[in-house]
Amino acid sequence: MSTERALPVATPRETRRAAAALLRQDGRALGGVTVLNGLAALVGLAGPWLLGRIVDAVVKGHGTAAVDRLALAVVVCGVVQLLLTRQAVHQGYRVAERAAARLRERLVDRVLALPPTVVERVGTGDLTTRGTTDVATVGTTLKDSVPEMAVGIFQGLFILVAIFLVDPLLGACSVLALSGLWFVARWYLARARDAYLAEGAANSEVAEVLGTTAAGARTVEALGLQERRTAAMETAIEVSRTARLRTLLLRSFLFPLVDTSYVAPVTVVLLVGGALHANGSVALSAVVTCTLYLRRLVDPLDTVMLRLEQLQSSAASFARVEGVGAVPAEDAGAAGTARPADQRIEVSGVRYAYEGGQDVLHGVDLTVRPGERLAVVGPSGSGKTTLSRLLAGMDRPSGGSVLVGGVPVADLDPELLRREVVLVTQEHHVFLGTLRDNLRIAAPTADDRELTEALASVGWAHDLPDGLDTELGPTGHRLDGARAQQLALARVVLADPHTVILDEATALLDPTAARATERALAAVLKGRTVIAVAHRLHTAHDADRVAVMADGRLTELGSHEELVARDGAYAALWRSWQQK
After folding, report:
1. For a tag site, which of 42, 304, 525, 563 has the least CB within 10 Å?
2. Is 260:111 a contact under the CB 8 Å cutoff?
């Protein structure tokens, strides 16, 4: 994915801090898991030590009763370790699930707080992949890898301590022989993070190309772009395949080297221990105990190394998830605490350029009075939609200012902004859930009567099978474009802003339904400021004033009658529209 439009990725230090903060919220439970893991590891040390005592008992000619007692103790220790480990894993799962839930909730909050311009720039592929694949990877790691790795680390450390206690020289030989694992791990860790981040970015690009192609399938077919989109998909898949092969190659080097490293300490202890035993310096039981400890060390080390590899993938995913909250301040904006003094909207010398492009608005000056109905008209590409986005605070002007009540509209806190200005476009969304749930997005405390009145105010005349309880979305009742748009307008009624910006908001309705909806809206929006980006010029005819845009400039401003009388650009548009 192009770095210019990719979301940020958290640094290793930021990732560690975020992970620690996430787990600290469950600190007491995490401490309990740590204690259980430690006890399980300690009890696990008893087995090899008891087996060493069995060897001593046999060498010294003790009877079967002594051996049986020691064997029974081995079994008891094994059962206790199993119970402690099971409880530790169970508690670890609970901690991990709660942490994963908090991570998902925080990601949703951060995504919803992203400025629309950022979302549009990065595309849906990157956000979708971070919110699904990456979050799932982190959740699985928290649930599986972290508890198992904790157990492995405890067991490994205690086993090494036990070897030193049995015989310091054999312990030193064991550590020296295990040093190869340190170098192998460092070699792998130096390369793994970048490799997994590249794989995540490649997966995002695949999702982006696939999503945009599917969303624009009709356009692709109409313009004959199938080969171009297929080529783009093949390129994205090839990049993804190459990234995955790189991580596979790293694993292909890591695990054989790790397996080889396990053999070295056992071999060294047997050779050194055998020589020392021959000299009478070390008891046979000590050599046997240390060897058994080293053999037992293989399992926790294997777990640690396996989970270490998985942690690299998860850490890269976690860095991508945390990166959503690291959007630069200039992108995220600076929501202030100032409140507008009134409802007056003032646009002064506004210029705007999309990223990497030239200005599409050139010094626009406009004042919208409270309660006024203003229609914005002009040919396609004249800057109408760009102006509406600036008025709604979705974009920040490159130059000049857009103020509501003397406060820059883009600096308003999102909660306050929704009560001041709401933009309704041709784009709409029906969320999974009931019709009631979809409406309460705009007014969480609204009762059924208020919801029904809001629907009626926008001309809703569609009897759903279960009324407000009807499930909507792909798995429920599907609304057609007209009904979905009426639902979006009903949300505006419930939000109750003082200014409503309609950017072709009734474009998907047929002329009769559109006219009916606009009449209903006229009654609902009475006394509010309404700015309508108009395609059908009857909207301009009914407005208090009409603003005419051309080539990013405000060229005419006045009432319908005044502009027709001037016989300028608007009059030409009006005559052309009447002849259709």
Report:
1. 42
2. no
Q: Quick one: tokens of 354?
A: 């999309």
Beta bridge partners of 368: 345
CB 385 within 8 A of CB 503: yes
User: 502 in helix, strand or coil?
Assistant: strand
400 contact partners, CB below 8 Å, separation of at least 6: 347, 348, 349, 350, 351, 363, 364
Task: List 336's β-bridge partners, or say none.
Answer: 412
Domain ranges of the chain: 12-327, 345-578
Q: What 3-state class would DSSP assign to 344?
A: coil
Report strand pairing: 529-533 vs 345-353.
unpaired
Where do the H-state alpha helices sit in 60-167? 64-113, 116-129, 135-140, 146-166
For residue range 480-512, what is the model confidence (pLDDT) as tens digits?
777 787 888 888 888 888 888 887 666 555 666
Listed residue (487, 470, 467) closest to 434, CA to CA: 470
104/504 Cα distance (integer angstroms): 35
Q: List Cα–Cα distances, 432 to 94, 446, 453, in angstroms.
A: 28, 19, 22
Confidence of residue 71 (pLDDT cuts 50, 70, 90): confident
The Cβ of residue 406 has, within 10 Å, a number of other Cβ atoms equal to 12
Report CA 479 to chain centroid distance, whole Å: 28
> Measured between alpha carbons, how far is 29 from 24 in angstroms, rounded to an integer?
9
| Residue (of 324, 47, 301, 256) closest to 160 by Cα position | 301
Cα(first)–Cα(last) distance of the chain, in Å?
Answer: 45
The C-alpha atoms of residue 438 and residue 430 are separated, in whole angstroms, by 7
What pLDDT, in 10s, does the model give residues 131-189? 888 888 887 777 767 667 777 777 788 788 878 888 888 888 888 877 777 888 888 88
Nearest CA among 453, 454, 458 for reference residue 519: 458
Which CATH superfamily is 345-578 part of? P-loop containing nucleotide triphosphate hydrolases (3.40.50.300)
Q: Which has the closest alpha carbon to 316: 198, 140, 206, 203?
A: 198
Q: Which CATH superfamily is domain 12-327 in?
A: ABC transporter type 1, transmembrane domain (1.20.1560.10)
User: Which of 419, 491, 426 lies closest to 460, judged by CA?
Assistant: 491
| DSSP codes joined into one string, 539-564 | HHHHSSEEEEEETTEEEEEE-HHHHH
Do domains 12-327 and 345-578 share one topology? The answer is no
Asked if 563 and 556 count as a contact pair (C-beta separation under 8 A), the reply is yes
Going by C-alpha positions, the residue among 3, 229, 284, 260 that lies closest to residue 126 is 3
Distance CA 390, CA 116 (A): 11
Is residue 21 packed enough to be buried (19+ CB in 10 Å), middle (13-18) or exposed (0-12)? Answer: exposed
* Percentage of the chain exceeding pLDDT 90: 3
How many whole angstroms separate alpha carbon 351 and alpha carbon 334?
Answer: 20
Q: Give the bridge partners for 139, in sequence order.
A: none
Q: Which of 407, 416, 496 is nearest to 454 (CA)?
A: 496
Alpha-carbon span 394 to 386, nearest angstrom: 10
pLDDT tens for 530-567 read 888 877 677 788 888 999 988 889 998 988 898 888 88
